[in-house]
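Input record (one chain):
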Amino acid sequence: MCNNLQETKMLDPTQFAVLGSPIRQRILEILCMRQRNVAGLTRDLGAEAPLNLYYHVNKLVEAGLVTVVRTKQCRGAVEKFYRAVAGGFSTPRGVRGQGDLVDVAAASADNAIRDLATALETGEVRSVEDLLLSRVIVRTSPERFTELRRELEAWLHKLAAANGEGEVEVATMAMLFPRAGRDRLQ
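The corresponding structure, as predicted from the sequence alone:
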């Protein structure tokens, strides 16, 4: 997602839990693309910007997902500029908290829906030719599932590495998981 930043894994479940907030996901998304101070984040977030934006930024800093990249003296105060520590983040392996998983997935889906609604409102997306929306359910072996997960992850890394090569900003959301109720496919 970021120029000159490598995709990393979130190995710490605490980091994962911090992203259960849709606004923190949006802040992190912005900071993966560019450095911002709180005023810049407020402009980028627009009507979404919460009154307690400093609180959410500090939570991301405390979790080690965001860092201060520079400071600037401004009218007697110190202005901080933040940047994500990586270009993108993936689900940590071995997270046990089901609530955290559901919260982060729900926040990701909410943000993707909000992005799509904005793209429709602004005319960036004018027809079905401008987007790919798909839900696919397949039956496969555990080995092939693992292989598919690796392939999807590799493709997402490749997409993230291509950031900065054009003018169009593209949103992607992916979930791949074993579905409950194996007999549903019959």
